[in-house]
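Record type: monomer structure entry
Structure origin: computed from sequence
Chain ID: A
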Amino acid sequence: MTNYQPGDLLLIAFPYARGTQTKNRPALIILDTGNADVVVARVTTQMHQTLYDVTLTDWQGAGLLAPSVVRLHKLATLEKALVRHRLGSLQSADRQRVSTVLRQTFGTW
């Protein structure tokens, strides 16, 4: 079983909320504890702006095809079997901004 590192970007077959269909979309690894599941945040090209969205400045260096936003309030626990392949990983500055928002969001939990 493959293990992933926080900051890895994957192409994952995200299941729809209803039904058995999926849609391939990028996701950011938040946590992989070594079992069959991973915790991911959605990555989108829709430039929403909330306190929990991080616009990636080096999306090309991360292995993405278009300017993207990590939606840190859209977390999911998904089976690793849904992973299509690894795209790349966050670059240093983007990783730092994601880390800051995660600490602000969950630091007092």
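Annotation 1: Residues 92-106 form the longest helix (15 residues).
Annotation 2: The chain has one domain: 8-106.
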